[in-house]
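cron nightly-structures :: item 1 of 1
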Amino acid sequence: MSDFHFLYPWRLLALLLCPLLFLITFRAKSAWYRIMDKSLADALVVKKSRRWQQSLPWLFALAILALAGPSWQKVLPDALTPKSNVMVILQQDLSMLAQDLPPNRQQRVQQKLMALMQQMPGSRFGLVVYRAQAFLTTPLTDDLAFYSLFLYAQQPQQLPDAQGSGLQAAFRLANQYLPNDDQSPRALVLVADSLSSEDARWLQQQSLPLQIWVPGTSRGGPLPEALAGRGIDSRLNVARFEQMQDSGIPVTLLSVTDNQDLQALIAHIQQTASEQQNARKDLQWKNSGYWLLLPMMALLLMWRRQLLCLVLLPLLLMTAPYSKAAWLDAWVPPDIQGQHAFDRGDYATAAAHYHDPLRRAVAFYFAADYTAALNAFRQLPASADNLLWTGNCYAQMKQWQQALNSYDQALSLRPDWSMARENRRKISLIIMELRKKERERQASQGEQADEDPDAIKQDLKADEGVNQQDIKPLASASPQLSQWYDNLSLSPGGLLENLYHAAPEETP
């Protein structure tokens, strides 16, 4: 609620009338007092309770607050709502093998990360690991199977053993692979059981969408027998993490008994996404004054119970088969009706109700009416978003070249847009494949035309064919290519270990 404000704050000046209304209702008396003696009127006039009459100033105040337009978030069409991009930065010190969280911290973190990804469908997750150096293990992906393949293969022993901390390098690497446009929500989750004082000071100085997830206990836990004699301290530095919490960075302790830590992480990610969307300049603030209608209706019904009839009458009339649509049009704006239909998955009905041209075009697209969607998008201003939707419509209609042109125009307005680049790449591959097939078809037709139908053909003998050889990399191939071929026979863990020891690393 840090973004709470009023869209029309000058209307709040009407609140100055509330004390006047309170005095009027407090001093109001029956008209009999003007024509009868006061003592006689006191004896004859039945006095009514003033409690509900005095609710009028409160009702007026709520109405003014609603008209002032309270708002704390921006309007983002559901069809255009982007999913979060979450980059996990996983510390891989040998203390992650401590067994205070059974079976050990590393395996418990892996299980929790997969549960987090499952509870955020559609969001993209990436993984950066670090000890003295930092490495990208998995780029952003929403493929659960692919992410789990390399997450579960990750072990602290795979990273090179060296002095120093690679935390700052890990953050540089994570930011490098996160989208940098303001329309893609970003979040960083640091999973670490220890922080040096230097790293803690550095994190406090940064302005990052960061939260820290801490596995372990203050007592620590035993390490595997092979590491028992190395003097590794597995106890959490609770004071250091409390210091990070006090500095404004959310810190969550990994829970073994329940999923409260996951709920806290998801809440922070959603809050970060909301703050990033509210910072966008191309979106309008949402007027949430309609929520104040509920307490206003409650006051009205307590003040005048006869108003129950006015509430029940429209509900009864709306049940009539021929008046329902008319009443909906009279009381519910068409765009809201369209949004309800869109939420139900009735996209054709949504397109029929929408007055907003962008939402109507999106509804046509989801209704698979690509011709109508294309016409609607082409009538909108030539923004990068609209050009991307136009290209998608052409692609759905298999008009590949027009789709490619639309993506090129979108990229000319926003060159670093990864979504447009990916769509353009896919369409380019389709066009290349179609051209290749056309060339092959033309070549085959030319060969058939040159053949003599009366020519006698003989098959090759057994020793006349070309000797077949196994497909192997050439001896002159680059070492990187040879290494790639060798890695094909390794497990995911072996691939990661080769990556950490052979690939160029991000150093502090």
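cron nightly-structures :: done
Strands lie at 5-6, 70-71, 85-91, 124-130, 134-141, 186-191, 210-214, 251-253.
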